[in-house]
Structures are given as structure tokens and as C-alpha cells.
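BUG: 3D viewer hangs when loading the predicted structure for this chain

Environment: internal workstation, default settings.
Expected: structure renders.
Actual: progress bar stalls at 90%.

Input used:
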Amino acid sequence: MYAFDFHRPTTLRQAVSLLAKSEDAKLLAGGHSLIPVMKLRLASPRTLIDLSQIQELTGVELKGRSLVIGAMTRHRDVANSPIVQEAMPGLAAVPASIGDPHVRNRGTIGGSIANNDPNADYPAACLGLGATIITNKRKIPADEFFTGLFETALEPDEIITKVSFPITRKCAYEKFKHPASGFALVGVFVAKRGSEVRVAVTGAGASGVFRVPSFEEALKKRFAPKSLEGLSISPEGLASDIHASAEYRAHLVGVMARRATAKAVAYG
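C-alpha cells produced before the viewer hung:
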């Protein structure tokens, strides 16, 4: 490691102040993405601001017809939350599938979506449910938040404080895991809320998480796995690497979407 300044604020106000006055600062919200890239010198921030001691950024609560999760709530706590399990078991399954116990015990929802790794699970849940990302400055719809590979709409002095998910029982996530890391080679989140249907895909897109309008239209007519039979997406614009080709990922999107839909129907 190289030398850097380290701060551990205990309030959001302190964190915002440190971020505003620190040059080239990075927020530490679990560290499973940031620390590895620092070790490889792919990132060399002069200042780290650890958010782990800010209690106001943790917790799960119901607010009307929304499920609100604090940005520093760990994957384990979301997966095991009776509130989440009762309101949306399809959402509880997302953090339960992330990485291994070590990752789930340290990683946070805010860190996951702020980093916007193309193989991360939470971006698919946010986009699939039409979540709202709440920061210290504003509220950002998920459709506007994820802007590209490792890129979001967050401004340099902005901190995610909460994520608000509209509640629906008919939602589910299915992914094809990398056997070592647990990352999604392809993950699909499907949700139906009233007349709105959303299908979000992670792991497959060369530019990160995306929606599949053709699948959504088919499921609006009839929300069932059979509605997706014979449908596929083009491999153009999909990721291709040593783990899976773009063509294989395109095939997996259809398979995972049908499985997720079947789960969502069972939950609903």
C-alpha cells in the first residue's frame, strides 16, 4: 500500500464536510471493490473516508408502500431482515446470493451501487424495481443513476444515504454465478407492480446494467415464463471475455429471465 490520509467520521455531516474539502477523496463503504483496485494501483486516492461508523446510514424500514434501506446496511443484514423477507422475498434473495460470507458480512448496498460494477447484483435489483437512490443532496431514479461502466450520476461531493424500493411481491432475481467469485456472469431481476413490468440485466452488458424492453412487453401481456419462450436478445453490445462469450451471455439472459419470472409468480 501507499501513504494516504484516513478518516472515520461518525456523522453524515462530518463525512460530507470531509469529502468537500479533501482533494482526490474516496468513500470506503465495505471496500470489496475499492481496496483491490488500490492494491493494483488502478486507483490511488489521497484520502479515504470510512463510512462504517455512521449509524444514521444503516437500517431497514417500511415507509408507506416503500422499503427503505440505509446505504451502509450490510448485505447480510438485508438478506436476514424479517422486514425485507416478508415484504419482498425476491429482493432479500439478492444480497443472499452475493459473494461469500466474508463479502456479505462487510459489503454494503450503498457501496455496491455507487461502484456500479458491471457484474454486481444490486444494480439489477435497483433498476428492476425502479428504485430511488437518495443522497445527501437529492433523489435519483434508478433509470437515471446508472450511466455506464463503473459510472453513476453521483457528483464528486455526493454521498448515498438510502435506497427506496417500491414494494411488490411479484419480483425475483436469478443469476448464473462465476464459480469462484460469486459475481453474476448474467443476472436478471424481474418485477411486476400493477401494470408495470421491468426486466433488468447485470453481468452481460459491456456498459453495465440494462433493461430489456422486448421481454417487458411480452410479460405485460401475460406474466408467465412461457411468455418469454422463443424470445432472445442480440449479443451485440454484450460483454465477451474468458468466462463467457457475448453469444453465450445473450442465451443466458433468456434462461435467467424465465427462471426469475417463475420465481416471481410463485412469490406473488
